[in-house]
Design goal:
By secondary structure, this protein is mainly α. Helix content is 79%, strand content 3%.
């Protein structure tokens, strides 16, 4: 009887004790997980850790590059708006491209410049999502505008008799609205899905907020975010295919005469250069963000990250301003006044 009691009661009590310990441990883990999920109010940007000793130099370069970008874009916008002879679809789309460049840089340069001079490199949760939305909706809008510019050049060069009917002011306005509305809807969907994730971390290894860097901090499954992101990427890869097919026809058509070749070089070549610039920097950013090695030096990772948000807005107006004869002559006229 005593042995029975000794063999059964402690075992049952030990089982209850073990179950209580497991239950208590699970409760503590759940509490810690819930704390991590609700505590992410601010993100830390760790990319600035290697800029401390050179932040004065980087700030001056940032200020110079930002002023150059703003000045170049505003110059083209002012020239196109003021001169009535430039109120044509191609120049209207170019003006929209410059406005979009200013819109995209507004989410990067002010915050980046302040962080260079600050000892604390943080951004609020809402501010981070807003930065993601603006930067990547700007990149998507670039693609949309470039698609419609390719369509405009195709109609002007290959079907000049139908150009004015196909590119009427009303249709140009509709295309311009779509070039902003569709990217905004796509990025709103992406950012909304990201905002619903439960996060277990608050460190972003970059100089600015980026969607995939936030998604990687999620506690649970991110399959929906990954699939949605890939759909958006392939949607804009389709834009590139449309532009490439349009210009393949333009190249074949331009080989027919010397005049067509000259027209292609003056109006279409800048467009192709802008397309290459946008595509190269965006693809590089996506591939680096998703598959980049953590073992790379931080300063090299920073350089790879910022070229996407710096090069395209600065280069686009310069390419068009130097290559389009009509715009170049108008700018020279305003400068000489």
């Amino acid at each position: 009887m005593f042995c029975q009691w000794c063999g059964s009661e402690p075992e049952e009590g030990g089982s209850d004790f073990t179950a209580d310990r497991h239950s208590e441990r699970n409760m503590l883990e759940e509490a810690a997980q819930m704390t991590n999920r609700t505590a992410v109010q601010v993100f830390s940007l760790t990319g600035f850790s290697v800029t401390y000793n050179y932040r004065g130099l980087f700030f001056c370069l940032t200020l110079l590059c930002g002023c150059l970008t703003v000045t170049a874009n505003l110059t083209l916008i002012f020239t196109i708006i003021v001169d009535s002879s430039l109120h044509k679809p191609m120049y209207i789309f170019l003006c929209a491209l410059c406005v979009n460049g200013l819109y995209g840089t507004s989410a990067f340069y002010p915050k980046f410049a302040l962080d260079l001079l600050s000892d604390v490199h943080e951004i609020s949760y809402g501010g981070c999502l807003l930065q993601v939305f603006i930067i990547y909706s700007s990149a998507a809008t670039d693609y949309s505008i470039l698609v419609f510019m390719a369509y405009d050049r195709y109609m002007a060069v290959c079907r000049p008799l139908h150009y004015h009917s196909m590119m009427s002011p009303r249709r140009t306005t509709v295309l311009l609205c779509l070039s902003w509305l569709v990217p905004f809807c796509c990025l709103a969907m992406v950012v909304t899905l990201t905002s619903r994730l439960d996060l277990c971390g608050s460190t972003i290894d970059k100089l600015y907020c980026e969607n995939w860097s936030i998604v990687k901090l999620a506690c649970g499954s991110t399959e929906v975010n990954s699939i949605t992101g890939l759909i958006v990427v392939f949607f804009y890869i389709g834009h590139t295919v449309c532009i490439a097919s349009s210009y393949a026809r333009l190249v074949r058509f331009s080989l027919r005469s010397r005049e067509c070749r000259k027209k292609f070089m003056q109006t279409c070549l800048p467009h192709l250069l802008c397309l290459f610039c946008v595509t190269a920097t965006l693809v590089f950013d996506i591939m680096y963000t998703r598959y980049g090695s953590v073992s790379m030096p931080q300063h090299l990772r920073n350089f790879m990250a910022i070229q996407f948000v710096i090069i395209t807005p600065a280069v686009n107006p310069i390419i068009y301003g130097l290559n389009l004869t009509k715009i170049r002559s108008k700018i020279k006229g305003y400068i000489c006044l």
